[in-house]
Amino acid sequence: MSNNAGRAAVTDLRVAFAGLALKNPVLAASGTFGYGVEFEDVVALDRIGGFIVKGLSREPMAGNPPPRLWETAAGMLNSIGLQNIGARAFVEEKLPRLRQMRNIVVIANVFGYTREDYEAAIQVLNEGEGIAAYELNVSCPNTRHGGITFGSDPRLLDEVVAAAKRVSRRPLIVKLSPNVTSIAEMARVAEAAGADVLSLVNTFVAMAIDPETRRPRIAHVTAGLSGPAIKPIALRMVYEAAHAVDLPVIGMGGISTASDVIEFMLAGAVAVEVGTANFWDPRATENIVRELEQWCAEHNVEKIADLIGAMKSD
Ligand SMILES: Cc1cc2nc3c(=O)[nH]c(=O)nc-3n(C[C@H](O)[C@H](O)[C@H](O)COP(=O)(O)O)c2cc1C
Asked: Taking the CB of residue 16, how many other CB atoms lie within 10 A of it?
């Protein structure tokens, strides 16, 4: 017997798409990982595939009034209201520290309330060194069109993606809203407008009421539902989007274990994002990478990329 008997081979966890090369497919999701710097003493940032920073706008924003979080059965409602320090402060105050860290991938999440807001935020971020890509959050109300969210209307989605693509100096990931009738249609609209990659899902519009006080649990009344509660719906949407377009698709929604990651990859995702799990385990991303190595070794997977879209349907 050789010395290697019984020892599983090390799996190649690398994935590459749209000019991005990730050491593994596990990214931390926007809004659940701060600006990355807050996690440097908690997570080995060079062990995870990368992270997406909190959504950035052209100006700093204070967000919604409390209460803004509520735990539900297997999930979480949030109405943070896109509080952030603004694109300029990110470039000047956070990026210099991130640039000192070796071997990490930083993706900037961007949002706005008008097309011009998105363009202005991207133009500021274009000046910053050390950003691998942009992720466009289109689950935002368009204040010029009566508050309908960009990502829920094909015309608005087309307009904002095309505008962002025109000004962007980096690969453009369009993060789709799940609050639509046909995710396949929205995926195709984003592809035609110039998206390089799609990511989905953002949170589902939801709410909770306190029966004792008869008041909403969240001051803003409606909020975004995330966490394990949404996983099967998110998985279905990732599957549908991945089969509707030729673009790479990043999947997310309720991922908290290595086998969740495998499910999303089999459905067609090239990589995944982990969000709410970071709230109950700040090391979730790093732990999932370790579990993923183990899972792949146990299942004789040589290259994790071989699992992308490999669901059997016969
Ligand atoms: C507290 C909180 C804040 C979030 N902020 C953002 C954000 O700024 N931009 C964005 O695109 N998505 C944001 N999201 C959505 C997540 O990135 C992710 O799409 C969603 O939570 C689903 O994944 P999960 O079930 O793993 O959390 C936020 C989610 C939570 C829970």
From this structure: 12
